[in-house]
């Protein structure tokens, strides 16, 4: 009979050990589930960020194309104005040289700006 309480204690220890082991497994499973949830949230955020950056790239690509067209038009207009100004200046100097050569004006009357 003295052995009987000892056997009961052994069973209790085994049950407590089993319960502790079960609790540890439950904690590991809980940590695994939490890690899976965090990974899912991070992947979802990365997916949303990737989609947003694609949208922004497309949006700004359109703005850039519009600005490029406008800049090209401004360059053409600037080149035209610069060429016209050069032609007018050359014409003025050519007329002054011709007038000087034919004696219509003297050197002091040259329209140099």
Explain what the structure shows:
By secondary structure, the protein is mainly α. The protein has one domain. 88% of the residues lie in helices and 0% in strands. The chain has 1 helix and no strands. It has one helix at 3-101.
Topology:
Elements: H1 3-101
Task: Give a concise summary.
By secondary structure, the chain is mainly alpha-helical.
Specify the structural class: mainly alpha
Query: What are the segments in which pLDDT stays under 50 over at least 5 consecutive residues?
Result: 1-15
| Oligomer description | single chain
Which band does the percent of strand residues land in?
under 5%
Query: How many DSSP E strands?
Result: 0
- What is the CA-atom radius of gyration, in angstroms? 46 Å
Helix content range: over 70%
Sheet with the most strands?
none
Question: What descriptive keywords fit this protein?
Answer:
113 residues; rod-shaped; single chain; mainly alpha; 1 helix; 88% helix
């Amino acid at each position: 009979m003295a052995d009987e309480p000892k056997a009961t204690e052994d069973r209790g220890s085994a049950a407590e050990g089993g319960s502790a082991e079960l609790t540890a497994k439950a904690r590991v499973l809980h940590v695994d589930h939490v890690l899976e949830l965090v990974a899912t949230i991070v992947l979802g955020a990365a997916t949303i960020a990737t989609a947003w950056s694609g949208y922004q790239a497309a949006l700004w690509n359109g703005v850039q194309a519009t600005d490029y067209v406008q800049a090209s038009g401004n360059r053409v207009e600037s080149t035209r104005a610069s060429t016209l100004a050069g032609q007018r200046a050359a014409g003025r100097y050519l007329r002054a040289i011709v007038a000087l050569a034919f004696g219509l004006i003297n050197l002091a009357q040259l329209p140099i700006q």
